[in-house]
Every structure is written in structure tokens, then in C-alpha cells.
Amino acid sequence: MKKKRSPKKSSHDASPVSVQIARQAIALTIAGSDPSGGAGLQADLKAFQQNGVYGMSVVTLLTVQNTMGVKRVETMPVDLVEQQLEAVVEDIEPLAIKTGALGTPAIVRAVAERLKSYHGDVIVDPVLISKHGDLLGGDSMVYAYRKYLFPVATLVTPNRYEVEALLGRKLTDLDSICDAAHELLQFGPEYVLIKAGVIDGLRHHVLADQEQTISAAVKDVPGNHGHGAGCSLSATIAAALTRCARTHPQAKRVRAAVEFGIAAVHAAVTLTPPLGKGCRPVEHRVLDKGTSGKLD
């Protein structure tokens, strides 16, 4: 008689893996869609997921775009944006909300009105200037951001050219950018982070509140890449804020989140994958690799 063999154990019989999940780390993006996945709400959701944050989204506009450019934009009706936002926050309240491309002044105002009663962190990335330097939405969008959305923001994250549009003047050097950060604070946000761009071979960032101004510089990475870098930075900061203990002082939480975001996006730009024929997207899969200690 043949001896019966014991059945082999399948991989499903292995001991369960221990997983730690920050179940209250929840973030919402209110932004436009990029079907190529490099920017917009797709980039935001990747940043949230990579950092262990449960991500949600409200769609403000649809684009037809890829790494070579934007071919078409269709903005959502204001009431549809409002209904999406209300449906989310009445059921699953996020610890942080970030805004990206909002499309029209009416949407900016509607979002700002709803966020007046929200008690978490609000990160506003005022998408006003395209990568080609074009003003998106005109002066009416600039006014809407300054009048309605900035006053409810914890942190605003404009780039240098968006600051010029918001203030109506050119920024010539790092000192003028620091001055501009304090001027933007007069519109109501608690903190301002200006993505100052490349100065003397380094990519600078300026973080300001009513008490102080601090700066960060990382080595520039030359090349035709960076699609989605701004979205990824604000989303990574939002994700980091959901993971920071709220028992810490607000200034400490914001500074730590900004430090983390700058380092993570720098890593993502350095490791840009060879995707697309135009401005290549950042490597979203390393957006959890932020470090601290870069702000002076």
C-alpha cells in the first residue's frame, strides 16, 4: 500500500502579515482630472496612497491632456461640484483638504463658502499659470482666490509666476519673494509657501507666517520633466499633515509637513520615469521618501 503524502500548504496558510494602518489619516482633493495620470487629482490620490492616507476626490474639471500638453478642458457645473463636496464631507470627514485646478471663479467661491465651516487643514494650490506661462482664468480667477479661498486656507502654495499674477508685479530675487510671501499673508492664509524656482542653480522654497520666514533649497534637476510636481507637493504636504499629531503646535506641524513634501518631491523629480514624449511626470511611487531638516 502506498503511503499517503500530506498535502502541501498553500501560501494562503501562511501566518498573517502584521500591517499598521493610520485609519484616521483621510484627505480630500478638489481638483481637475489628468487622464495621463501625471498631475491633477490622479497625482493627488497617488501621493495620498503612497503615504498611507485614505484619499477622496471631488472633480472640478475634465481635461484632454498628456505629457505634451492640454488639448481640451471641460469645467463641471458649480452645483455638481457643490454636491460632490457635500456628499463626501457629510459622510467621511477628512483631516486635510487640498484644492488644485478649480476652473472658474464661481467654483472657487462655492468651494470657499463650504470650507468656512470645515475645521481641518486646507491646502490651496492656486493653479493660475500653465507650464507654458499662460494665465488660466484671467483676473477674475486671481480676484476669487484672494477674496474667497485664501482667507479659509491653512497653507497656500503658489509658484513664483502665480505670485506675480496674484500681486501684479514681477519678482526679481529671493528678497522680493520673501517680501511677497508676507504680502500674500495679508489675504488671510495662515501660512504661505512660495515655490520660487531656480535661483543660482538651486531650487528655492520660501515658507512664511506672521512670525517668521524660512527658506529651503534643493539641487535643481535639469531636464524636460516635472509634470505634476506642484500637485504632488501640495498633496504630499496634505498627506503629511494628516499623519502629524494634532497635539503638536500648528507651526511645528506645518513646517514638518513642508519639509517632508519638499524632500519627497525632490526625490520624485530625481527619479523621473522615462514616460511620455513631452514633459515627463514625476515618480509618484517615491512620494513617501521625504526627510526633514532642510529648512533654515
UniProtKB/TrEMBL annotation:
Q: Does the keyword Transport apply?
A: no
Gene Ontology biological-process entries:
thiamine biosynthetic process
Q: Does the keyword Nucleotidyltransferase apply?
A: no
Q: Which InterPro entries match?
A: HMP/HMP-P_kinase_dom (IPR004399), PM/HMP-P_kinase-1 (IPR013749), Ribokinase-like (IPR029056)
**Single GO term (MF):** phosphomethylpyrimidine kinase activity
Q: Which organism is it from?
A: Stieleria maiorica
Extract the NCBIfam families matched here.
HMP-P_kinase (TIGR00097)
Q: In which pathway does it act?
A: Cofactor biosynthesis; thiamine diphosphate biosynthesis
Instruction: Report the EC number(s), separated by commas if there are several.
Output: 2.7.1.49
Residues crossing the lipid bilayer are: none
All copies of domain Pyridoxamine kinase/Phosphomethylpyrimidine kinase, residue ranges: 34-282
Identify the GO cellular component terms for this protein.
cytosol
Q: Which residues form the signal peptide?
A: none
What's its top-level EC category? transferase
Chain's gene name? thiD
What keywords is this UniProt entry annotated with?
Answer: Kinase, Transferase
The record's annotation in Gene3D superfamilies points to:
3.40.1190.20
Q: Per its record, how is this protein called by name?
A: hydroxymethylpyrimidine kinase
Q: Which CDD domains match?
A: HMPP_kinase (cd01169)
Highest taxon above the source species: Bacteria
